[in-house]
Structures are given as structure tokens and as C-alpha cells.
Amino acid sequence: MRAIVSSHFADPPTRREEEMARRRRVAPGTVALREIRRYQKSTELLIRKLPFQRLVREIAQDFKSDLRFQSSAIGALQESVESYLVSLFEDTNLCAIHAKRVTIQSKDIQLARRLRGERN
After folding, report:
1. Cα separation values, 41 from 34, 36, 37, 120, Å
2. Distances 21 to 12, 29, 90, 110 between C-alpha atoms, Å
3. In the chain, what are the domains?
4. Do the beta carbons of residue 13 and residue 21 sit within 8 Å?
5. Which residues of 48-83 are buried (b: 16+ CB within 10 A; e: fewer)?
6. Using an 8 Å Cβ cutoff, are 45 and 82 in contact?
């Protein structure tokens, strides 16, 4: 018959468990800054291709049915959209900083678009 072993006498922690317990926390914001640097260095598209393609086709369906797209046209649209969004978020961040904040809000996006002349 097998005896029940209490957790006090359980196996000693593995090396991985020890590393996890020993690992230090990074300062708040460090990981965010690391991600910002990584994305600023990269040139790859950040929006997934298939969801973007479905969105383009759905929007185009409202204007004319049975439209066909070359893959290069979808790619050009995606490049353009991502470039626009990056630029908009840069301006939005400047609006938030001007308001002495570090967190962007919807009112910052609205102000950035208003200053660009995109919206009333």
C-alpha cells in the first residue's frame, strides 16, 4: 500500500522553478520602451494580412459587389493604412504630451485629426 507524502517532503524544486523564483522584476515601462524600440527598428507590417484583406473586401462590398483585388493592391493599401496610423499616433502622442499626459486618449486622436484638417 502506498503512503501519502506531505508537501513538506515533496521533490526539491527544479532548476527552472528556482530561476523563476530568482528572476527580478523589471521597472515599470521598461518592457514598453523595449517594444517601442523593436517596432521602430522593424519594417514588417504589423496588421495581419488576412484580417486586413477581409476588412478591405467587406468595405468594398458596400460600394460594388463582385470586386476583385490584385494581391499587390491589398499590399499597397495595407502599407498606406499602417503608414497613416503610425503618423496619426505620433501626432496623437504629441497632443497628449502637450496636455502634460503620457497616456493617449480619444480626445487626443480627435484633436490630431482636427489639426490635420481631416475632421470638423
Report:
1. 11, 9, 6, 35
2. 13, 22, 39, 45
3. 13-116 (1.10.20.10)
4. yes
5. eeeebbeebeeeeeeeeeeeeeeeeeeeeebeeeee
6. yes
pLDDT digits (tens, 9 = 90+) for 19-72: 777 778 888 889 989 999 999 999 999 999 999 999 999 999 999 999 999 999
Count of all residues that appear for the chain in the document: 120
DSSP three-state, residue 92: helix
Number of CB atoms found within 10 A of residue 86's CB: 13
C-alpha grid cell, residue 107: 480626445
The pTM of this model reads 0.75
